[in-house]
Amino acid sequence: MTPIHARLFLAFGALSAAAAVILGAVAAHLPDVAPAAQPMFQTALQLHMFHALGLLATGLAAARLPASRWVMAAGGLMMLGTLLFSGNLYLRSMAGIDAFRFVTPWGGGAWILAWLALAIGIMKAGKSETTADAAVPERSEAGR
User: Fold this and answer.
1) 3-state secondary structure of 144
2) Nearest partner of 76 among 28, 35, 118, 132, judged by Cα
3) From CA 9, how far away is CA 29, in angstroms rounded?
4) Pairwise CA distance, residues 46 & 66, whole Å
5) Which runs of consecutive H residues, i.e. helices, occur in the chain?
6) Residue 104 placed within a domain
7) Residue 109: CB partners within 8 Å, gap ≥ 6?
8) Considering the entire predicted model, what is its pTM?
9) What is the radius of gyration, based on Cα positions, of the chain?
10) Four-residue CA torsion sign, 130, 132, 135, 138
């Protein structure tokens, strides 16, 4: 059975990707985004979609690898980064709300930490598998 956190990351990643597509379509068909805010909106959209795919990869890693706090942290940090970084840029570019500008770098930092945590989680999982494989002696064909 797939762990709950893996299913959560997979579901949130899929929903996040769908939201990015919807926001991109809205921006393309409704002229609510001011021309000066278009680059900010496009940055939010591009990084939102990229990290939605990253969250799907994190969910797949969580489903495939042994339980890992590093992989769980990576998923949580990717979700947090999406909210803080892209969410804030969407608010600024679409609604003109600039009160939370200070959280944008925290979102970017959360994404950086997420990718590092995912890498550590994958490396530690590979190391534990290698160690476990080395501990089990192989039997020769003659001994079977």
Assistant:
1) coil
2) 118
3) 30
4) 31
5) 4-29, 38-64, 69-81, 87-90, 104-135
6) yes
7) 81
8) 0.83
9) 20
10) negative
- Residue written as token pair 């979609």: 49
The one-letter amino acid at 33: V
Which pLDDT score, from 0 to 100, does residue 132 have? 47
Give the pLDDT confidence of 38-58 residue by residue, as tens digits.
Answer: 889 999 999 999 999 999 999
pLDDT digits over 112-125, tens only? 999 999 999 999 98
Q: 61, 58, 65: which is closest to 125 by C-alpha?
A: 65
* Domain count for the chain: 1
How does pLDDT run across 66-115, given as a tens digit for each residue? Answer: 989 999 999 999 999 999 999 999 999 888 888 899 999 999 999 999 99
- Exposure of 21 by Cβ count < 10 A (0-12 exposed, 13-18 middle, 19+ buried)? middle
**Is 125 among the domain residues?**
yes
The verdict on residue 40 lying in a domain is: yes
Residue 42 CB: number of other CB atoms within 10 A? 15
Distance CA 100, CA 103 (A): 6
73 is a domain residue: yes
Q: The domain containing residue 33 runs over which residues? A: 4-133
- Whether the Cβ atoms of residue 118 and residue 95 lie closer than 8 Å to each other: no
